[in-house]
Amino acid sequence: MARTHLTLAALVSSAMDSFSPASSRDYTAEIHDDVDAAVIEDAAGNAIVVEVPRTGAANDELRAEAKSLDALTAGVRALLPFNVPSKIHQAKVGDGVALITSFVGGIPLNGAMMRGRLTLAANIGNAIAAIHEIPSSVISDAQRPTMSALDARIQVRDVVSRARATNMLPAPLAQRWEIAVDNDALWQFEPTSIHGALTLDALLVQGDAVSSIIGWHALRVGDPARDLNWLINAEPAERDVVLEAYAAVRRARLDPNLMHRANLYNEIDVARWLLHGIDKKNPAIVDDAVEMLDHLVGIVAVEGDDALASAPSPVLDVGQVRELLDETPVYRPLGTIAE
């Protein structure tokens, strides 16, 4: 049963002697699955966020989030052009842990909000680039996961292999993705610090500014393309501005195959959705994934080329991928779930 914001306010009152709740409301920016969350304010208007998991997987995410927020020290935060929540307290709740953090303002971004707002697009590019400019040693020293280019390649190979083993993966897609995995040029990149779970709704905006980025449970050193795979859903003009701003910050470190891999991840995420449904023994998810895979086969057939075999050309036309992924239920792909 989901906890109400009043119940969560009572939890805060018992867990934090120094904080006296005066009001509470639902936390509309929550991006974790299976988590109850609320914004709690005291009489002076100081606001905090409390999140309590309903499942073991959600509990693991919140624990990972707490570790990630600790890794983002004051020195690191000073380099970022946006606010990051701070961990205030962890409280034991049953077999899990409640995470209490500072409240950061902003409205979760969606595709409609981004259209035609080129200044916002540029600020998004700057924000993502700033994350990728965090020294990798900061993240690894904080004992957050570190993935090499080979690790990223093996992870994709594993997803393809597992999806093929279900006998539900269409042969054209299996062949297409295996060619991509075997394309050495595609995997020649320098791992960077990445958010790891970046989606539109993790970006909070105020006006044309990125006010905050939330959902740091997958902070790691890894493939920067993972933080940009959502971008193929953007309109071409806004997408190009994001990438131009990103490239201006990253300069010589910009990988020419960056968006090629980002597009690959978006195709592979349909297979992840299939595996998720099988793992959860959810026939509705499995049927949905199978339908999307069939649809993807049709798109690839229309393309009529081996885009994945000749980086850095795009995998799919942006509009086609947007059409496919607009049909995808909310799901956090592999790499966004804490170890």
What does this structure look like?
The protein has twelve helices and ten strands. The radius of gyration is 20 Å and the shape is globular. It has helices spanning 5-15, 56-71, 74-77, 111-114, 118-132, 136-141, 149-165, 171-182, 236-250, 258-279, 283-303, 318-325; strands at 21-26, 35-42, 47-53, 87-93, 96-102, 107-108, 192-194, 203-206, 209-213, 220-222. With 339 residues, it is of the alpha+beta class. Helix 7 (149-165) crosses helix 10 and helix 10 (258-279) runs antiparallel to helix 11. It starts with a helix and ends in a 14-residue tail after the last helix. Strands 1-2-3-5-4 form a five-stranded antiparallel sheet. The chain has two domains: 5-102, Phosphorylase Kinase, domain 1 (2-Layer Sandwich), CATH 3.30.200.20; 107-325, Alpha-Beta Complex (Aminoglycoside 3'-phosphotransferase, Chain: A, domain 2). 45% of the residues lie in helices and 15% in strands. A hairpin with a 2-residue loop joins strand 4 and strand 5 (96-102).
Key words describing this protein structure:
339 residues; alpha+beta; Phosphorylase Kinase, domain 1; Aminoglycoside 3'-phosphotransferase, Chain: A, domain 2; 5-stranded antiparallel sheet; 12 helices; globular
Describe what is shown at a glance.
By secondary structure, this protein is of the alpha+beta class. Helix content is 45%, strand content 15%.
N- and C-termini, Cα separation: 26 Å
Question: Number of helix segments?
Answer: 12
Q: Output the CATH homologous superfamily of the largest domain.
A: Aminoglycoside phosphotransferase (APH), C-terminal lobe
With strands numbered from the N-terminus, the spatial order across the biggest sheet is 1-2-3-5-4
User: Roughly how many Å is the radius of gyration?
Assistant: 20 Å
Tally of separate domains: 2
H/E order of the elements? HEEEHHEEEHHHHHEEEEHHHH
Measured as a percent range, the helix fraction is 40-55%
- What coarse outline follows from CA principal-axis ratios? globular
Major β-sheet annotation = 5 strands, antiparallel
